[in-house]
Amino acid sequence: MIQEEIYEGYRLPKGAMILGSAWAMTRDPDMYPNPEAFMPERHLSADGKTLLGAERGREVFGFGRRVCTGMHLAEASIFAFL
């Protein structure tokens, strides 16, 4: 943090390192109902096509400067397999 902030009642001191949790983001029941269940259909639109862009989550690949460099290769491989 470059300056002290208050976020949802929590004090975040200046100089604190804030880390995101991919585990928590991919198990958010508001975004993914029944998050522990294997449900690949949750990533399909109503017409059966894969969701694109902002419509789908990419948390599994990380975020920011640490995003997975193989993200596009992984998605292309899955698309070719299916």
TrEMBL record:
Its cofactor is heme. Heme binds at residue 68. The keyword Protein transport does not apply. SUPFAM superfamilies: Cytochrome P450. GO terms for molecular function: heme binding; iron ion binding; monooxygenase activity; oxidoreductase activity, acting on paired donors, with incorporation or reduction of molecular oxygen. Keywords: Heme, Iron, Metal-binding, Monooxygenase, Oxidoreductase. Coiled coil: none annotated. The keyword Metal-binding applies. Gene3D superfamilies: Cytochrome P450. Pathway: Secondary metabolite biosynthesis. Belongs to the cytochrome P450 family. This is Cytochrome P450.
